[in-house]
Each structure stands twice: as C-alpha cells, then as structure tokens.
Amino acid sequence: MLPKSRPLCDTTLFLVVDSLRYDAVFGDKSYDTPTLDRLASESVVFENCHSQGISTAPAMTAMLTGRYPLEYGGHWYIEDEQPTIAEQFHDNGYATGAIHSNPNVSRLRNFDKGFDTFEENILPFKSDGLLEHAPDDALRYANKFVRVLRRTPYMPSPRVNERLAKWTDAAPEPWFLWTQYMDVHGPYLPGGEFTYRNKFRAEQLWRKAAVNSPHEITTDEHDELHTNYRKEVEYFDTELGKFLARLDWRGQLDDTLVVIVGDHGDEFYEHDDYGHSNLPYDELTHVPLMMSFPDGSEIDQPRQVDDLVRCVDILPTALNLADATLSREMERRMAGESLLPLLRNDESPEFDSIVTEKEIRGESALRFGFRTERWKFLYDGKTDQKLLYDLDGDSEETENVADANPDVVTEFERQLEARFETIENTSADITIPNIEAQPGVEERLQALGYQE
C-alpha cells in the first residue's frame, strides 16, 4: 500500500518521449536543448533511471500498469483485469486523457483502459469509424498511400501539442494527461528540414540501419544518423518549450506534477546494432527522468538524485502525490515503489535489481536484463546466451566477465528463474487475443513506419 499524504497536485502531466536517450539530455554537450536544460534546473532529476523495456510496448506497459512487462499475459496487450494508472486516477475523481500516434500503445492493444479521452491519431485524417470498420486491405493501402504524402509516419509534436492544449483548456480539474511524443523515433527526419528527398533518404537509411543491414552502415551514414537524431531531439525541445510556455501563461502548471521521461533509448552501434531491438544494454535502458513537483509538495527541488530508480516507479509516485486510493488488484500486482520516501526521507527503494524484459516480436523468445550499481546481467532466450558486465570498470559493457564471477552469475540466474516462475504463475489463467493474427495489423504498423 502506498504511504498516504494529502493531495498536493490538481493535475498530472505525463510526457513520454519515445526513443530519448539519457545522454541526449545529460552528458553530451553537442545537443542544444534549452527547454530540457531549464526544466532540469528547476526539477528533480533522476540521474540513474532505467526502463523496464527496450521498446515501446514493454516500456509503456510497465509505466501505465506499475508492474513488470511480461507478467499477466505480457506486454503486447493489457488484459481486461489489469488495473492501469488511468483507471486509478479516474476512480479518484480525475478526468483522464491520452493523445498520441503510436500504434504499439493503441486501443487495439487495450491501452485505452481508464481514459475518458483516448485520441490515437494513427491515421493522418479523422477516421470517423474507419479504423474500426474498414476492410483491412483497404486500410492497409490507404495507409501506404498517405504515408507517401505525409512528412513523418507519426503525428509531429506541434500537432500533438495543439491537441494537448485543447484538451487541457476543456478538461475539468483534477486531471491526468499522458502523451507519447514520436519525433525522436526513427526514421530521423529533422522537423525543420523537410523535403520529400530528405524524407525518402531518412526512411531508406533508417531501414538499412535498424532493420536490414546494420553491419553495412558506413562511417558517413553513421554520422548522418546520429546528426539527424540530434536534430530531432533539438526540434522536439523547441516545440516542448512552446507548449509548456502556453500552459504556464494560462496558469495550468501552478499545481501540476510534470513528468518527462524517455520510454527507452536508441542504439548507435555501441553493441553492433541500431534502433532498439538489441539486448538491454544501458544505451537502451538508461533514460532521462525529470519530475517537476508543485509548490507545497514538501519536495526539495531543484535536486539531482543518483539512486537507482525504475520507470515502473513513476505510477506509484504520481498516485501517492495525489493521495489516491488504489484498488486492491492494483496494490496486489504493482511492482513499482513510490519515490516520495526517497525524496523526502532519503529512503531508497527496496528492489534487488532493476529488471528489463521483453518478448521478441513474432517469436516466443524472451530477453532479460538485471542491473545493480555494479553489475549488469543479460540473458538472451533466443540463443540461451548469458552475459555479465562489471560496471565499475566497464561502464560501456564491452567485456563479458561471467566466467570470472560464477557466484555473481549464480545469483542473477536465481533472479532469472524467479522471473520465469512469476511470469508463468501470473499468466497461467489469462487469455490474450491474438491481434497479430488479424489481417492487416502488422501491415498497419509497417505502413505507419514503426520498426522494432
């Protein structure tokens, strides 16, 4: 059960930035991000936050449910009995809204649970029921056609922010609002540099790097990818600044908890791959997390926190600050811990290791990462490979020291077996609809440009 406190925020703004690496905000001075820098100077910055997924589906399952991604039927679909953060806020009298354009967290996958408003702007036009009723082949070809005409496969941040602002203007307080910004996600096409030539070049290079032939990327292509990623981050930063300035001007940030977090990172060949389909190395799991708390929350800010924390801890923290009463099922399933005791009393979270996990798309193989301050243990269920890194002397995770540390490996193997057992036990009586078997589902994802 969450420790109780008086409600200290009327509104919660949950801003998730898809594919935003930690070093894109902190550490790499080549990024020009004045908005994020200003927020960091005014907020609580968690310097060692790690995601529970290396792609959107597992990462957002953890953040929206407060549990680990592979439990209770997994992360491709939120099963009907699973409580969500939106349901908890809704049941405590909050208006709840979600506005995004990511097909991996769509209504089709049951991610709309608990939201009064759920705008999944996956199509580049108002569907008026088309998404639910059109023949799959017709929708697939329509998506392919409009993708040629659109600047990006996703709704860019200016249009997202227009909808967010419209919703906040109309919503009664208190409210909870979540969005998933997609600008930083591949293919990297800087927002202010659009031409159709640039668009096709960016998509071809992204597919080569993240899908088809990562080992064939040249030095010049690598530099182009990284430069375009940086420009995407900077473009997002500019648009975020405009949006927050509008909310501030209207007085909508006065009693608001603002959470900004990356759902996962992207790799630039640190471990022989691009995108976010590799094992849970730090470039994929280490994400920026900032929380700006309202006045009167008894939280000392600005502040930098170097304790290890998890994205799964965001849900209980936000609900704790709102003094929300949680359902019994939420309390039973929740793996995350409120970070308020850490911030107020220096009481560190009680988990043994940070767990990151994922089921490979289209396969039954599972991948896991277990991280402590010193050690990183990785397991690849596709190859049965086990890797151990000593982060004290090898922060870039380059030297496998499993053979030299059998006792450490044995302890992590115990934790791995415990995860397998928990996943099996929690999922035993749960039936998940096979939405991938529905004609056109995978084609919709591909037509919209989502590659994992």
Q: Can you put this structure into words, describing what you see?
A:
The chain is α/β, with parallel strands linked by helices and 452 residues long. It is 35% helix and 18% strand. It is built from 14 helices and 14 strands. The strands form three sheets. It has an eight-stranded mixed β-sheet, sandwiched between helices. A four-stranded antiparallel β-sheet has the order 11-12-13-14, covered by helices on one side. A hairpin with a 6-residue loop joins strand 11 (354-359) and strand 12 (366-371). Helix 6 (157-170) packs parallel to helix 8.
Summarize the structure.
By secondary structure, the chain is α/β, with parallel strands linked by helices. It has 14 helices and 14 strands.
Which percent bin holds the helix content? 25-40%
Strand arrangement across the biggest beta sheet = 4-3-5-1-6-9-2-10
Query: How many strands, what sense, and barrel or not for the largest sheet?
Result: 8 strands, mixed
Fraction in beta strands: 15-25%
Q: What is the 3D form?
A: globular
